[in-house]
Design goal:
Helices cover about 40% and strands about 15% of the residues. By secondary structure, it is of the alpha+beta class. A 5-stranded mixed β-sheet has the order 4-3-5-6-7, with helices on one face. The chain has a two-stranded antiparallel ribbon with strand order 1-2. Helix 3 crosses helix 5 (about 195-205).
Length: about 270
């Protein structure tokens, strides 16, 4: 296992033979591993399918000739409408990672751009800054790059998760999306600097497989802060209802106790008259 860098089990290992052989004619192998302990939400079809797709793409690109066409769009092969390739000049390289919304989608994720969209759990405010700082570090390391970085509240934009076959338990994660070709790729594994860098490097090098979407995912025009607040209100209302029920029950019991005491007093009074 040490030969393949495996330090713990269980582990999924994807291997394929290299195109070149050693001096003694032995075949060498290349591949990647997927640790289930680092996958948000555990194993599911989307995670395994994405990993297999990446291994397949890596095998094809490694063993193919430089001019070979695998029939799959290269996410980095995007040009502007006037035919000029300015991929490495438009992406933001400093400042905060902007939140992607229905209103700014065209500006941040236009047809001539590759969008690197971080999808976060909007209920996890405590770790949001940490996750966005990870993305900032990756953005800086990859600069200059064709990627336009942004983030979206996945637990608020549930239609987006559904379109991408991502579960809320898979968050945080990242996808790359090219609206002009309606193709995307999804991060597999741990959400950290190294794995994000490997993921985006695979996109830039054409080694990460991409998938076509039937149509471009839509973001709902919704105030996510208000949305999350509305999810908390029902809990508060239920607490109020429960408190009212408890108060009414307490009043009923007190009234019942007073009635019994009155009946006892009446009985005592009748006995004395006799």
């Amino acid at each position: 296992m040490s030969r393949f860098g495996i330090k713990s089990l269980p582990m999924i290992l994807g291997l394929f033979p290299s195109a070149t052989k050693s001096a003694d004619g032995a075949v060498s192998f290349t591949g990647a591993t997927l640790d289930p302990k680092t996958v948000g939400g555990g194993f599911n079809y989307a995670v395994l399918d994405g990993f297999i797709s990446q291994i397949t793409k890596l095998s094809t690109s490694t063993n193919a000739s430089p001019d070979a066409d695998d029939g799959e769009d290269d996410l980095t092969n995007e040009k502007t409408q006037d035919g000029n390739d300015d991929r490495f000049h438009s992406a933001q390289v400093s400042g905060d990672i902007p939140e992607l919304t229905a209103k700014n989608f065209n500006d941040l994720c236009g047809k001539a751009k590759i969008c690197a969209i971080t999808i976060l759990d909007g209920n996890d405010n405590e770790n949001r800054e940490q996750h966005l700082n990870i993305v900032k570090e990756v953005r800086q390391k990859k600069s200059p790059s064709p990627f336009q970085f942004s983030w979206v509240d996945g637990t608020c934009q549930l239609d987006l998760l559904t379109a991408l076959d991502i579960s809320p338990t898979d968050l945080p994660t990242m996808i790359t999306l090219v609206p002009s070709s309606i193709r995307f790729a999804r991060l597999i594994g741990r959400f950290d600097v190294n794995n994000l860098g490997f993921f985006l490097g695979g996109i830039m090098g054409g080694k990460t497989g991409t998938k076509a979407l039937p149509n471009l995912p839509n973001l709902n025009d919704i105030d996510c802060v208000a949305f999350h607040q509305s999810q908390l209100n029902p809990v508060a209302e239920e607490d109020d209802i429960m408190a009212q029920i408890i108060a009414e029950e307490k009043a009923r019991l007190e009234e019942e106790e007073k009635r019994r005491e009155q009946e006892d007093d009446d009985e005592d009074g009748g006995s004395k008259k006799k």
